[in-house]
Amino acid sequence: MKFFGSSPLASFVFLLGAGSALGATIYDRASSAAPKQVSAKDKCPTAKVVTTTTIQVGNAQVNRTTFACPDDSLRQASQNPPPSTKQLPTGSFARRNAAECRNPAPECQCGQSFVCNCQNVTATAPLSTDCATLISATQVVAQAEGPTFTVEPDNFELISFGTCALEWTNFACETLEYCWDELGNTGGVVNQLCFEQGGGTAAACNANDDLWLLQSLRVGS
Question: Which interval of the chain is the signal sequence (predicted)?
């Protein structure tokens, strides 16, 4: 791993606190046993909440929480990615570039190539309708707060609604910036190909520069 030194109006309640065609590939994976550590919260049980925000999307409330991991648990857990078997053409993803970023690369990771895996890590997948609401929330946040977000080293961003969550983890030694529209687009593709089509019950998307991980997971009951 390499480390370097028209949607509804949003209302926010602060509760706590402080590329080419994406180059992305999705794989289907069938697993006989679910791994013990799936989400970043599983991998870093000592993670602390930094901020929590509620995002109003129509009649739905979406939760957004930033966590900080006090050690290198996230990096250690990332050393054993799940196996992959089936590739999805990169054309499934919309084109993105770094034009929306406030910072240059490598801090800006918009458009960075990545590989996604559909996984069987929970008994059932998130409800696709919950994921669709969550994806809409990324558009609302982008309108209200700007097109990108930043994540500190060893931190992870978790947004969730109902049974569906998107989780973005920073493995780098510097702050990283990422685009909300790219997060939402990837979540939409994963929702269709992994969840709606029965490809898996979760998905993990690893950056080709090894600096971040995007996961789509089932949360709650």
Answer: 1-23
